[in-house]
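Recap from last week: sequence in, structure out.
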Amino acid sequence: MTASGTPASTGPASVPHLDVDPFDMAFFADPYPTHQRLREAGPVVYLDRWNVYGVARYAEVHAVLNDPATFCSSRGVGLSDFKKETPWRPPSLILEADPPAHTRTRAVLSKVLSPTVMKQVRDRFAAAAEERVDALLDQRSFDAITDLAEAYPLSIFPDALGLKPEGREHLIPYASVVFNAFGPPNELRQQAIARSSPHQAYVAEQCQRDNLAPGGFGACIHAQADAGAITATEAPLLVRSLLSAGLDTTVNGIGAAVYCLARFPEQWQRLRDDLTLARNAFEEAVRFESPVQTFFRTTTREVELSGATIGEGEKVLMFLAAANRDPRRWDQPDSYDITRRTSGHVGFGSGIHMCVGQLVARLEGEVMLTALARRIARIEITGEPKRRFNNTLRGLDSLPVTITPA
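Predicted structure tokens:
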């Protein structure tokens, strides 16, 4: 029987069947009641709408993320199974790859974006954050998404990557296409892919060696081809991975943090009293809002997970956002607390496929929140926040605010 009491159509009898659509507009508008329903139904559920298994509790999501041999990425981290259908674009060498191929390409990106490299660019990123706050203080009232969460990463990350100044307006729409494409063949996915040609063409061209400025992250990736770590064909695809991973996570993460701190003024005051909490305030926003909501894996063999037997070749949908608010793992999960121990949240994933842009996102989030807290006394939401709907990402399209200088 399904949760609504109708006979189960297909799929296993051993797990609860739910008639929910996690790619529906009503779900995107308010996913939390459904997240709770998914967690309470059982450790593993079956979603009849798309014929996939689902895991929404922290323990199972973490287990799936950390067993890449059983739950693979190479068959696609969206609903599409690359073994059965052609991907809409060449698969990512990072996100949609398994070891040993993934190990080699991932090592290259880890070197290019190492903690040492982040230390070297930190001052530059912090100065850009201060400049952005200067501009916002002049405006007083602005849109915290376009004028802050998007404007800041766009002012610094494309330069660090080595992109040319023209054409950067394609970057955010391109990332939106990529993440919509992980969903089912709904309107969001179909429209995104239909509109994607100019964004794809721009990105493909910018990732070529001749178009990247010397000394940037992109040029460093191409240099790894000279060293023999990757092939010349793989280099542009790795630059592409960085482009999609390094921007949207940061934009949605900073947007989430500002949205949280504006709604919870006591947390804002805590941050103003202790600027060393900036990094954790960003982490807690990523846990609390989960900019990346879901990802799929595909089983490589029959496997038992928390008492449920899942056959080979089955899609498993991980609800990262539901895991990040699982009361089995977190104390008072629905409260935003910048002093919480956030380590272990799955907002950036976990295991070998942990978000490749996470160090960049964390650095940008930390320096931006530090700059804001140092110089702004209050952030007030002065208009209706608007959601930006996407099959994988959760974020705002608009957040009108007014700030009071410190």
